[in-house]
Amino acid sequence: xxxxxxxxxxRSLDFYYGPAxxxxxxxIRIPDRKVxxxxxxxxxxxxxxxxxxxxxxxxxxxxRLDGEVLxxxxxxxxxxxxxxxxxxxxxxxxQKSNPFPKSIYDNVAYGPRIHGVNQKGELDVIVExxxxxxxxxxxxxxxxxxxxxxxxxxxxxxxxxxxALAVEPEILLMDEPASALDPKSTTRIEDLIGELVKDYTxxxxxxxxxxxxxxxxxxxxxxxxxxxxxxxxxxxxxxxDKDQTEDYITGRFG
Length: 254
What we know:
Strand order of the largest sheet: 6-7-8-3-9-10
Oligomer: single chain
CATH class of the domain at 6-98 and 169-249: Alpha Beta
CATH architecture of the domain at 6-98 and 169-249: 3-Layer(aba) Sandwich
CATH superfamily of the domain at 6-98 and 169-249: P-loop containing nucleotide triphosphate hydrolases
Distance between the termini: 38 Å
Order of helices and strands: EEEHEEHEHHHHEHEHEEHH
């Protein structure tokens, strides 16, 4: 795929939790192998929008979506889409690290096993590659059989990133991946995002304005369920087109 080609696109996207509308007419084109940050005040629809990109909202009863979500030109809400295969292509890392109460090795091998990889030699290669990509291999390679719950918070979050990478996704969604971490661990995650974007399209929700400015190439500002403005991060932060964006960036509200 060409650099800067469009990988994710939404068209006239509306989303509802029961009768309550959470997203209004969101149309956006997110480029391939770039970091796109979603910013805006709490409750503005950032995380809801993120979860529409791999149909995680489907598991919530009573939700409904109108419009289109296209990945590589394919509408992922078509009736014949294999949602399990979709979530293999579009991985997700959550705000709170959620390792399984299993060994470090089994956490990373979990996804590949579900998708039919059972040969130990093949799993060994995947586990090492994924932990390397997540910047964790050097810290855990001597204790892969230890329980993942014994890792520090920052290590657990990097393990969750490794687990997402193990099934070789094209896209990585991150919902405030560093908000529960200390500054040192946050820096590790931000540095890791800078490495991963060479190979993956990354969409990150963050409430931290400085983090969005540091890690992202593009920024989307949401307010009350609507996409107010989207563009290159340096432009959004220095010369936004909308007064509302400027007011939020400069701390006048939110």
